[in-house]
Amino acid sequence: MLPRESNVRISIVVPHLGDVVAFEESLVSVLENRPSGAEVWVAHDGSYQDPFDLGDEVRFVTAGSNNLATLVAAAAEVASSRFIHVIGGGVRATHDWTRSAVESLQTESVAIVAPIARGSAEGPITAAGWCDSATDVVSPLGRGASQITRRQAASIRGAYLIASFWRRSELRSACRAFGLRDAVAAEFAWPRLLSDNGWRCELASESVVLASEKALLASPSFHRGRTLRSLSSEIDQRSGFGAVATTAIINLLHPGRLFTPGRWAETIGQASTLLRETAAVRAIRYDQIESPAEEPATLSLSRPAVAEPMALRRAA
């Protein structure tokens, strides 16, 4: 049953990205482990017809495309709770996985929380959010480890968008501050724009989801390298040549990148940002985000209108 709007503690968004099997894996796991007071939204581009008649279990919101950033932005506008969780693309929920993340979001300065993603319940970590390194932007934190150390947790910069928790107001602000609906770019830009304005990203060590690298991590590519490096250089306000050129040289001398086609393409993409400003950089609007100190001292009791379940049609 759908919870009353006044009782909603968390809005869980399951985006439909076009892969039906991966979508259903995520949605079924959410419904099987659904926490008390959770509303579940399915965000789609209009193509999903709900063959299982879930209208009394979930709500639906339609976006202009099945791009992850577009779907998340649409869901953020209609979600009832002040806390939003995004999970999809084959990432699976586990028992009580939202509790510690919601507790973290109740800290005033925390806007984003990352769960720990593992390949299996007892398996190694796929990622515990992401960090930056000398050679990579958006690098999986704790990849391959069994546990996350305090030092590692302190280095977190953001959460992977397909498995992330947000304050609703700050997610909406991030969507306005970075209008380019590119999932690779938004995954980096939204957390960084918030953190540069005083908001924090935390790791919820007791929040566990199950995810393969394929489900969670974007494949290396020219587009990924170019997009992330240009955004990193802009947001960090580094000199265009110094930061990008140094990183490009390090990457080119790294043996793993010389002989891996995807990594090689990503390195070339990073180096290409020396030539001209990218569309991702032009999409930034720094004035759209307020710092924690600028937020209202009390929470507004008003909520956005919640859409009714869409009319359902049975699958042929």
Describe the structure.
The protein has 316 residues and is α/β, with parallel strands linked by helices. Helices cover 35% and strands 17% of the residues. The chain has two domains: 5-219 and 285-292, Spore Coat Polysaccharide Biosynthesis Protein SpsA, Chain A (Alpha-Beta Complex), CATH 3.90.550.10; 222-282. The strands form two sheets. Strands 1, 2, 3, 4, 5, 6, 9 and 10 form an eight-stranded mixed beta sheet that branches. Strands 7-8 form a two-stranded antiparallel ribbon. Helix 5 packs across helix 6 (183-195), helix 6 (183-195) packs parallel to helix 8 (222-235) and helix 8 (222-235) runs parallel beside helix 11 (261-272). Mean pLDDT is 85; it is low at 238-242 and 297-316.
Q: Which features does this protein show?
A:
316 residues; alpha/beta; 2 domains; two-stranded antiparallel sheet; 17% strand; disordered C terminus
